[in-house]
Amino acid sequence: MLGTDITTQGGIGSVVRSYRDSGLFNRLNIRYLSTHRDGLKFDKFLFFIRQIPIICFAIFKVDLVHLQTSQGWSFRRLVFFYLISSAIRKKVIWHVHGSTFDNYYIKSSGIEKKLIRYALTNRSSVIALSNSWKERLQVIAPKSDIRVIRNGIILDKYRSVRKETHRPFVVTFLGRLGVRKGTYDLIHAIELLKDLNINFKLAGDGDIQKCSREILSRGLNDKVEIRTWLDPDSVVSVLKSSDLYVLPSYDEGLPMGILEAMASGLPIVSTNVGGIPEAVESGVNGLLIEPGDVKSLALSIQRYYSDIKLWHSASQASLERAESQFSMESVELSLRQLYSDLGSNLSQVG
Q1: pTM given for the model
Q2: Measured by CB atoms within 10 angstroms of the end CB, which terminus of the chain is less buried, N or C?
Q3: Quick one: 316 and 178 in the same domain?
Q4: Same structural domain for residues 165 and 300?
């Protein structure tokens, strides 16, 4: 299995850590090798070059090659190893996490479009994170073998049951701060809610300084705490001390943050994009709005702040939904079946 370094910030890193920590690598005999890590551009390039001979040697020894990819350079790095794998007749799995993979395809040159279609179709299968993403990927590569395997989480790590909310009420956002994740919409919504006893925690990377200035200019610095990217243990701690998880994104795959929040017993306020509606049923374990609808975002947060019965019902529904649909056991069963279908005896997956 190839992808970004297991310590890397972001969704793929979080997914791969859950595979490792749950023991899935051992049980499915997966060897994980990194093609990318955080750092300066030159350091990233050197790391990739050093990994090429290691990965190429490993490819010859495995039954399958499983590629954890996003869009852009994530895909371009991995297509190099796809071509090598295909040349020696190894079957390949593309596990597509990119929240804007379809836009990446649309904006690509004619040659790159052909390469993307070829890679997703020839000697390969594709994993989509949701049914909606399966449909989007089928538009790009209609002849591709596409399976839906949702992300999973280690439930016991996050599980938290509470009968009361905190005062002040705590709303948490985790992820890359910026336009795509709807961070500025959230800041505008916070301004509408500033007279209520609600505190907000924003943690991640991206536009940290710009968001901090925006918060300060609106006089909200006593309402909002901004932190840099949290390590996995800190994520667990922050979620357990929160009452509501909010992610007003404009596009997504299937965000690990939402699944982690559900397993922590939090109602979710998010948007009707990507795979989110397959995790959050509006009116059951959360509320979904249209991207950019600041007023509805503020009203949705206020509903959970004001109505403890609604909050408790959604909290319980999040726990139940996480347990029934997003366990690592479900992920393992699906991967085991896919590997078997592709002819692997699970002796080694690269």
Answers
A1: 0.90
A2: N
A3: yes
A4: yes
